Amino acid sequence: MSERLTDIGPPHYDKFLPPVVKANYGKWKYHELLEPGVLMHVGDSGDKLFSVRVGSGRLITTDFVKDVCDLADKFCDGYLRFTSRNNIEFLLSDQSKIAGLKDAIKKMGLPIGGTGHSVSNIVHTQGWIHCHTPAIDASGIVKAVMDDLFDYFGSHKLPAQVRVALACCLNMCGAVHCSDIAILGIHRTAPKVDHERLRHLCEIPTTIASCPTGAIRPHPDKSIKSVVINEPKCMYCGNCYTMCPALPCFDAEKGGVALLVGGKVSNSKTPPMFSKLAVPYLPNNPPRWPETVAAIRKILVKYAEGANKWERVGEWVERIGWEKFFEVCEIPFVFQHIDDYRWAYDTYRTSMHFKF
Amino acid sequence: MHKTPLLDQLESGPWPSFITDLKRVAGRKKSAADLLGVLERSYKDKITHWKHGGIVGVLGYGSGIIGRYIDIPEEFPGVEHFHTVRVNQPSGWFYTTKALRELCEIWDEHGSSLLNMHGSTGDIIFLGTTTPELEPCFAKLTAKGWDLGGSGSAFRSPSCCVGQARCEWACFDTMEACYELTQHMQFELHRPSYPYKYKLKLSGCPNDCVAAVARADCSVIGVWKDDIRIDQAAVKAYAGGELKPRGGATVYPKLDVKADVTDLCPTYCMSYDGKTLKIDNKNCNHCMHCISLMPQALRPGTETGAAFLLGSHAPILEGAQMSWVIVPFMPMEAPFDELKEIIVNIAEWWSEHGKNRERVGELMLRLGMRAFFQGVGLEPPAQTVRTPRANPFFFWHQEDFDAEAAGRKYIKL
Amino acid sequence: MALSKADLVEYIFDMVAKAQGKKNIKAMDVQKAVLKEHPDQDKNMIKFGIKELIDTGRCVYTYFGGSYIEIPHEEGAAKKV
Asked: For residue A18, is it left (φ>0), alpha (ψ between -120 and 50) or beta?
């Protein structure tokens, strides 16, 4: 036990900073984008740091990381970083090396972009690759959507930046609730109880206690030694399945995708906003989820056509009104759009400020 | 190798394909090959095949390892166990290739060779290994100076924006604050003892590049108190089109300073007469719009620090929340004692009163803001609300009467 | 009266053992239970009492939606049923 190292925390970042960053730390003056994906930061000293931003999958392999390291060794003296949206940034102080780096990146098949008024990389969760409660896959939908929106990654042609995020169930471990466009996996049916397995696998008191809405009760027939679920109370969070593997919460046909739009976290002009329900249900359609891809493109294109300069998706929708948003995006308005959860009243219209 | 006709359809198209990448490793790793097999099965069945494991870990820690088991191990024995290892990332996600290669070497030896750079909380996510590999993997990591990140009802690995390492807008040293707090909270990070998860994210300015306001219970967002610094010559250069709007982040060729900047100011505190940009700084609400549009002309002031906001979380259970203002301004100098104290005090109050799986933001709503402020020993600033209450249901306590009799402000604690 | 360190560790262990399978116990439940019977017990000592049980492997942290302290056991998800 004595030689076992614990609680050392992560390495100090100082070990990983390029010399130009160390020399200008806290003394940067301004930045420019030389082109989509290529940033230049200029220090008070006049020193320049160039960052070449590259999109990649979030799910990667050590082979891929080593390939990326080869590029950073060749062009960046071994320095690189990752962004909060799973992009890679190659960091250089020698501008003359950018062209060679860009060629090598393209040769690897990686896209350069993700800056400014683009659709940057989609932050997302694990999906079917690793998670026990997802309604949908994550990496596959992201790949399909980014293939479709590829032009927007490497360009600045939108009215403002558009942040897309995906969470594969309503637990939202990807916290997509403040994204311009949020892709959300939804279950629409309560868990099915496998009484026979439950008896062998699960503790009944702790399983009952795991339900945040109190929807699980002991089975009325004591000889069965299982539980029953009060389905109208279930919110499909899957926590009972976390506790007890005999309560799977997925349904191959009924699960699917919802889209929420108009969230943001920046304070620019307007305060941060939540994403709100735009499309309540799209079918779960692997391997390329064409309905989801098409619905996102439609919203993005309508936004690009309709928004004013500098307007985020949410600012555009608030300005034109949600009834107009549904109209221009040709999305039918249904009961599911109307909030009936805890603070629903805040969302009802109490003014004459509406449009026909 | 399993046949994967559905997944193969994700190999075409311009965006990098994770399937192509995984297939490279599948040749040398049984776990990666079986993972592709399971994923193909999920694409066919349209359901997941993973089960949650809640017990595996490394000795002494309750954090950092997420147990996973497959529900069809007889078909995919390579992923019968497929646990996640969370490795605490360095501040700002900066690396040298040497460090990354060392991490890869450890993961090639002890795991599936699959990973995320990075997970939503910020950690490096090593995806997929077996129970016997956990301790040796952990030992190799610590020997190279790495440690596990948070999971469960623990203090989670803090994360931050790039801050002063590369951004002229950072109002405090986000990376050092992130490192300091991570070190300060090691016990709580590795030994889950809170009602539920407790997250910290730090953004250097109100643009909030790590989404602190939405994704962390404790949201620290940089801000300045004095005047925006103006370079009038550069303003003219923007107006004249010599400098590109937003530093070239758009296709718009030229800035109309009035229409694009001053008319869109949310507090109407700016004006431009074609020669001089004037800002009534007392009325600026630090939205960053003008600064973002003219990075060579405008910069945040020099009296800088951060606001502390509290309470955000994803929808479970009461619905998603964003953090709200608790302390509008605190100076942010290393070693960040004020921030450490407030984070620890809040955790103590929440641990005392919180129910199992109740986030601190939900507890604040359940018990009320007065109980919160008094419980953690803070005075309520007016900035904490967007608007005061509209209902008449406000009540008085004996201590309010005592304060009134003593001629003190009611809210004095 | 406050318990000695050794007695405190056994006290906590018993509490966890008795709850096993019936109720999920959190670190804070342990602290509250100890302080109810022994109001003068030092909180830090309780924290390190739990740490000792975990470090010696007599107890483990588990995670099932929340983090709990339990006696080590085979978990449901690892069983082949």
From this structure: beta
